[in-house]
Amino acid sequence: MHEPPSLPHPPHERWPLAVALGALLAGAVLLGVALTGAFGTGTTRASAQAPPAAPQVVVVTPGAQPAPAAVARAPAPSGTEVATDEQRFTANDRAHVPAAWVAGFYDIYAEAQKAYGVNWLLIASVHKQETAFSTHPTTYHGLNFARCCAGPMQFNVKNGAGGIGSTWVRYRDAGAVAQRPASYPHMTVRHPSVYDDYDSIMAAAELLRDSGAGAALDASAWRAAYDYYGHDLTGVSYANEVLARAIGWGQHSFCINCGTDQGLLGAVDAAWGAPVRAEMTPAPATKAKNKNKEPDTSKAGDDAPKKVFHHENSV
Predict the structure, then answer these.
(1) What is the pLDDT of residues 141-178, one digit of tens each?
(2) Which end of the chain is more exposed for a tag (fewer CB within 10 A), N or C?
(3) Structural domain boundaries enclosing 215
(4) pLDDT band at 52 (very low <50, low <70, confident <90, very high)
């Protein structure tokens, strides 16, 4: 009787190999699951952070046309106020804001656009202009330097003489017509609140709508931004910046930390800012043709308008 052929390796030498092979297979399975979960999470996260869809009609390229309707003449603010505003707007435009933070506002922008028909790019541009997407140090408490405005969209809470409520009082319930997102960067305990991101952004959307803004980024949107700030020379610069930024986003893509395109800024000013600024800038006095004509010695300025800083809804 023949002995069975011997195995090439003793059985006890195959055991470690089997264990190693099993561990390798298990590791491959776990790696596959992990990668699938990672890709799934990434997809979910990316979709959660995607901006809302802009309306189909996004941009009307600025052309040589005046802003709609006659504009109100208003005196310019003081030099200190102008300098402070311009510094703040420049700082907000250049501020670096994390994409994850701004993603927290996308659902609000979408609700505002749906409820009031205002292009969300315009709303977001005002948001950046006012508080750099709610990252300015005073966004969620107190008042601005002029002691009049507050919150993410800098609503005036102090105006409204003559029995009419402040701008904030008139628009604070704007969020009631839409669905408040389950979460967003700053949700206050009580609503409406000028410091609540949803309440404030929805109020801004309704105010812009009432000032003529719609789906298009055009002359009406420029005028709405001009009304949002107030009718003075700084308001012209404000509206130029807001519209140029929004149009740039519409032509390319929503870019949180990109500076305003200077070419677009010049085009917007030429189309809509310059005509308004020309109406507010008095023409230079002409020299008398007769050099011997007696100069006018009457007291100047008796009938000039008093310098009143018109700040409907901003710093």
Answers:
(1) 999 888 889 999 999 998 876 667 899 999 999 999 99
(2) N
(3) 55-280
(4) confident
For residue 18, the model assigns a pLDDT of 56
* 177 in any annotated domain: yes
In a domain, 232, yes or no: yes
190 belongs to a structural domain:
yes
- Mapped to the 3 state alphabet, what secondary structure does the chain carry? CCCCCCCCCCHHHHHHHHHHHHHHHHHHHHHHHHHHHHHHHHHHHHHHCCCCCCCCCCECCCCCCCCCCCCCCCCCCCHHHHHHHHHHHHHHHHCCCCHHHHHCCHHHHHHHHHHHCCCHHHHHHHHHHHHCCCCCCCCCCCCCCCCCEECCCCEECCCCCCCCCCHHHHHCCHHHHCCCCCCCCCCCCCCCCCCCHHHHHHHHHHHHHHCCCCCCECHHHHHHHHHHHCCCHHHHHHHHHHHHHHHHHHHCCCCCCCCCCHHHHHHHHHHHHHHHHHHHCCCCCCCCCCCCCCCCCCCCCCCCCCCCCCCCCCC
Number of folded domains that form the chain: 1
